[in-house]
């Protein structure tokens, strides 16, 4: 995939179809992964996840904002080798500030409306991930890297 418009369209479709991602955070000495519900902004430069503040992932994000997420559409079938797409997302995470909270909530609940009570809880933090790059793997070994802030595809 070397056409940037086609790549962004495929990412937008994948993110619209998949409700969950694996989020990797880091403490001082360990990497922690967890399944999270997510939503992407229309420009693909920001992803949103929510978490209670009393969690390991929240503590890790405060300590080290560099995160990675994995979104994929595999079905755990042999045909996934040729049909599945997986995206590793690299970025920096921070709690959404109060002045942008409603906009972030709107994006998140637009995709995850069933999580309204959780998202609106005073104990829940909405986290925005400022995406730096997407590493996209399709058809088993077709790798494309998109640096989203520079809006360019780079060689793997």
From TrEMBL:
Residues 8-134 form the Pyridoxamine 5'-phosphate oxidase N-terminal domain. This is Pyridoxamine 5'-phosphate oxidase N-terminal domain-containing protein. InterPro entries: Pyridox_Oxase_N (IPR011576), Split_barrel_FMN-bd (IPR012349). Transmembrane segments: none annotated. Pfam families: PNPOx_N (PF01243). Coiled coil: none annotated.
């Amino acid at each position: 995939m070397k056409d940037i418009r086609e790549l962004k369209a495929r990412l937008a479709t994948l993110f619209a179809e998949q409700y969950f991602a694996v989020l990797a955070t880091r403490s001082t000495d360990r990497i922690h992964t967890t399944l999270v519900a997510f939503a992407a902004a229309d420009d693909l430069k920001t992803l949103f996840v929510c978490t209670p503040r009393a969690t390991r992932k929240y503590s890790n994000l405060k300590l080290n904002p560099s995160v990675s997420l994995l979104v994929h559409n595999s079905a755990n079938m042999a045909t996934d080798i040729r049909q599945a797409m997986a995206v590793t997302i690299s970025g920096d995470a921070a709690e959404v500030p109060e002045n942008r909270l409603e906009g972030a909530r709107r994006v998140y609940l637009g995709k995850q409306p069933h999580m309204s009570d959780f998202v609106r809880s005073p104990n829940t933090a909405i986290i925005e991930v400022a995406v730096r790059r997407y590493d996209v793997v399709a058809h088993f070994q077709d790798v494309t890297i998109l640096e989203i802030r520079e809006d360019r595809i780079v060689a793997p």
